[in-house]
Amino acid sequence: MLIALMPGDGIGPEVVAEARQVLEAVAGAGLRFEEAPVGAAGYRAEGHPLPPATLDLARRADAILFGAVGDPACDGLERALRPEQAILGLRKHLELFANLRPAKLYPELAAASALRPDIAAAIDLVIVRETNGDVYFGEKGLRTTPAGRRQGYDVMSYDEDEVTRIARVGFETARARRGRLCSVDKANVLETSQLWRDVVSALAADYPDVALSHMYVDNAAMQLVRDPGQFDVIVTGNLFGDILSDQASMCAGSIGMLPSATLDRAGKGLYEPIHGSAPDIAGQDKANPLATILSAAMMLRYSLGDPASADRIERAVAAALAAGHRTADLGGATGTRAMGEAVRAAL
Ligand code: ATP
Ligand code: MG
């Protein structure tokens, strides 16, 4: 298996280095690694945030471990050359349409949640968000109304194939977990959502082992805070998923803890922490590497067919926290390298 390493900018190289060593420790000889510059690092090395050789590596690899992109020094560049374009380009070129974000609270970190500890303790869910369609990619523009007022518009649309492919990821993710799928839409108001609901409901016949429910997005936002323990897997569109996944992540604790995966139709994926390049702490051995290490665990589970090693990594992270290791974002003084070492020692 070929793993593409794209450390990127800021703390990206520090956290990716720790995750790579964890992957080597659990899956060793079965993995080959190749590294390529991306983001500001790509721009400096090759004149583009997503250099052709980096995109080629992404295409050849079985999975991509991505750090973070972003560098204040690039703020003045034209949009197409900014570091953030790298991740958008990878999603588009590789058709990575399914973004999976687990939100789980480690009991040791209950104090870090935005919720009351007894409510937060029950969070263990995955949001499956569609990332190639919806209002972000529909027709958009600015026009003038007959009355002379400026009017902005963004068209929301999904065709049934787009809904089917993301819904299948939702059903399959639920099947591999606790078997419950909640589809979130706004079918009482939106035509797009009515189609979404019809398509998801029709697919349920293929997954008799999964219990399907539907919820309006406004209610889902409330329920995530009121009683997050009721959710196993949530599947939703690009806009609703964008909002709900940020909400769920803050319920579950520090930004330095949360991994993500973005998958294509064949199960190939890009794995990255949800945090950014954190230039304020870059190069100081302060970054929490756990989000990236947990992203590597997701890679083993979803792209490399090795869920047992994924479980091992997740248990080792819990053990390192139970042993008292805390990086600065979790209120401690453990360094990036020492945290990576603590996880490897616990494997
Ligand atoms: P982006 O636009 O790239 O998502 P951002 O502006 O949202 O970036 P981050 O880079 O995610 O910001 O950083 C937000 C804050 O969280 C910063 O203060 C940063 O130091 C902190 N932070 C982010 N990631 C980590 C981490 N892994 N460990 C510790 N602190 C972190
Ligand atoms: Mg951010």
TrEMBL record:
Gene3D superfamilies: Isopropylmalate Dehydrogenase. The keyword Kinase does not apply. Residues 2-343 form the Isopropylmalate dehydrogenase-like domain. Mg(2+) binds at D218, D242, D246. Keywords: Amino-acid biosynthesis, Branched-chain amino acid biosynthesis, Cytoplasm, Leucine biosynthesis, Magnesium, Manganese, Metal-binding, NAD, Oxidoreductase. Binds 1 Mg(2+) or Mn(2+) ion per subunit. Pathway: Amino-acid biosynthesis; L-leucine biosynthesis; L-leucine from 3-methyl-2-oxobutanoate: step 3/4. SMART domains: Iso_dh (SM01329). Its cofactor is Mg(2+); Mn(2+). It is found in: Cytoplasm. Its EC number is 1.1.1.85. The record marks Y136, K186 as: Important for catalysis. InterPro entries: IsoCit/isopropylmalate_DH_CS (IPR019818), IsoPropMal-DH-like_dom (IPR024084), Isopropylmalate_DH (IPR004429). PROSITE patterns: IDH_IMDH. Catalyzes the oxidation of 3-carboxy-2-hydroxy-4-methylpentanoate (3-isopropylmalate) to 3-carboxy-4-methyl-2-oxopentanoate. The product decarboxylates to 4-methyl-2 oxopentanoate. Belongs to the isocitrate and isopropylmalate dehydrogenases family. LeuB type 1 subfamily. HAMAP family: LeuB_type1. This is 3-isopropylmalate dehydrogenase.
